[in-house]
Amino acid sequence: MDLSIARALYFAARGVGTIRSESSDDSRSYSSPARVLISGLGADELFGGYTRHATAFSRMGFQGLSDELELDYGRLGKRNLGRDDRVISHWGREVRYPYLDEDFLRWALRLPLWEKCGFGQCPGSVPVPSKNTDDPLLEPSKKLLRLLSWKLGMKSAATEKKRAIQFGARSAKMEVGRTKGTQVLP
Questions:
Q1: Residues 76, 100: contact at Cβ < 8 Å?
Q2: What is the dihedral sign for C-alpha 3, 38, 138, 45?
Q3: How far apart are CA 97 and CA 101, in angstroms?
Q4: Is 91 within 8 Å of 83 (Cβ atoms)?
């Protein structure tokens, strides 16, 4: 079990926290009544969202990328689903995985790799479908999802740099010494 990811999900699923304003020092407590949480699990594995996918592509081209994506997708059930469900259900909540919907999976797995991710193009060079030349270029990882976000008007989401949950939530910093969250517990 990857403990740094489990920690981040545990606290997120709790649904209690503090909202801080970016424009002022104001903060307020909140508690979410949500009983169902939406997870993005599967997006990285299907659309080349990890750094190792870019590395596989740079070393072995589309075949290397294909092999790496297949490996990641194939171990989702063993590595991720059980952990996420157990941690989130601790708080009496359920989780949904839209990227793992059977119809969506069938569609995504049939897509050519160069349509799913923009590796092979210079970083930040995925063209944005717009007539405005001031628009930023997008990162090649998860190209299709970034283009969709851009088209739907979620430009900040489309241009956001990938950040793993354990680093964004800072739960990776909770690890002590040489023990890593990916190690198996005795």
A1: yes
A2: positive
A3: 7
A4: no
- Residue 155 one-letter amino acid: K
> Distance (Å, rounded) from C-alpha 3 to C-alpha 166?
9
C-alpha distance from residue 97 to each of 41, 84, 124, 178 (Å): 6, 11, 28, 32
Q: What is the distance between the alpha carbons of residues 99 and 146, in angstroms, rounded to a whole number?
A: 15
Q: How many residues does the chain have?
A: 186
Using an 8 Å Cβ cutoff, are 48 and 114 in contact? no
Per-residue pLDDT, averaged over 77-81, amounts to: 89
- Token pair recorded at residue 166: 């354990």
Maximum average pLDDT range among 100-104, 122-126, 134-138: 100-104
H/E segment holding residue 109: helix 102-110
Q: Strands 16-20 and 27-31, how do they pair? A: antiparallel
This prediction's pTM = 0.77
